[in-house]
Amino acid sequence: AARLCSGAGGEAEAAGGAGTMLRHLARKLRASGPVTVAEYMREALTNPGQGYYTRRGGVGESGDFITSPEISQVFGELIGIWYISEWMAMGKPSTFQLVELGPGRGTLTEDILRVFKQLSSVLSKCDVSVHLVEVSPKLSEMQAAMLTGGKVQPSPEDESAYMKGISKTGIPIFWYRDIQDVPPGYSFYLAHEFFDALPIHKFQRTEKGWREVLVDIDPEVPDQLRFVLSPSRTPATQNFIQPEETRDHVEVCPEAGVIVQRLASRIEKDGGAALVADYGHDGTKTDTFRGFRNHKLHDVLSAPGTADLTADVDFSYLRKMAQGKTATLGPIKQREFLKNMGIDLRLQVLLQNSGDTATREQLLHSYDMLMNPEKMGDCFNFFALLPHHRVVHPDKKDKPESKSPLPPVAGFYELLLK
């Protein structure tokens, strides 16, 4: 039911009728020629009138894909524990901004806030607030309904947030269109299935050197799109292909690079950490661009605006774009991260407390979905940005015995559960 890993099978679904978005793109291509895959994705996903996310955003059973938080509450609970664990390891600062990029329906934030409430005695002296970065008006309405019961108000024009409210657990929540609008300060960032939907450039190695893959109208078939190669090097080819590249086909997401740079700069300046959970690879895969509609693989060029478009995250690129401003951990497979976070123990507690067979079966089914290597266990990875001092003592090299050992970073190391 989840979005499939790249390379997994599935029926490409024929789209009925050329829609408004296709006609809009066809006119544009006839007038100005082929566009980059990044520009095509941007139009198909976030065009103000007809974009997939701005118009519908199909998360959940009735949508086009299901995400981990929709499968099991345990996923979000363990991420909530990760943030509290890191907050404690960093000396319990007096403020704590939880910033989520692309929060979907708000399910993950809700699960995290439940953990914060359960551990409110630990967080009692800390000023906690939630900051959601969301471009879709429809999704921000869903988030507001889930997290505040709909009790939100638009913010005054002079404020950087466009909407604000109070969560059901009494924590202030703010909505922004861009990460740059989020106020500076000690923050924990969360990007779950966020980077995979950002626009990518695709490149192909040819006998004449690197060429960019573009989207164009098919001259043989009216209003049908096709991939073509750029006749010469494009600016993106010159900027994004590394001289040491060994693959023949490469996907690069410059927007992801910019966001990681911003996160790394903020963490370096104000403290905190970022946790990225997504499907991806460490600079090894080539062609991962794909579409999803009604939980099935869908031709990326067919009926744009009606399907989710996505590509695997290249974690080696994210690491490079952190530019040494922060330490990075991972990518580590989801099943290893959740196991290290104590998912098995949590499952046992929930099974013991569940009164009926149906609930127990659901718990075991969702555990299998998250952990099975054939399902989400190996497709999804966790990756973190942390301040350097969180991983290495500044003066450890000179006086190795002078400092108490740093607590291990939860999830990325096997913890001894006491």
Automatic annotation (TrEMBL):
The keyword Methyltransferase applies. SUPFAM superfamilies: S-adenosyl-L-methionine-dependent methyltransferases. It is an enzyme of class 2 (transferase). One of its GO terms (biological process) is mitochondrial respiratory chain complex I assembly. The keyword Nucleotide-binding does not apply. Pfam families: Methyltransf_28. It is found in: Mitochondrion. Its EC number is 2.1.1.320. GO terms for molecular function: protein-arginine omega-N symmetric methyltransferase activity. It catalyses: L-arginyl-[protein] + 2 S-adenosyl-L-methionine = N(omega),N(omega)'-dimethyl-L-arginyl-[protein] + 2 S-adenosyl-L-homocysteine + 2 H(+). One of its GO terms (cellular component) is mitochondrion. Its main location: mitochondrion. Keywords: Methyltransferase, Mitochondrion, Transferase, Transit peptide. PANTHER family: PROTEIN ARGININE METHYLTRANSFERASE NDUFAF7, MITOCHONDRIAL. Arginine methyltransferase involved in the assembly or stability of mitochondrial NADH:ubiquinone oxidoreductase complex (complex I). Acts by mediating symmetric dimethylation of 'Arg-118' of NDUFS2 after it assembles into the complex I, stabilizing the early intermediate complex. Belongs to the NDUFAF7 family. This is Protein arginine methyltransferase NDUFAF7. It comes from Emberiza fucata. The gene is Ndufaf7.
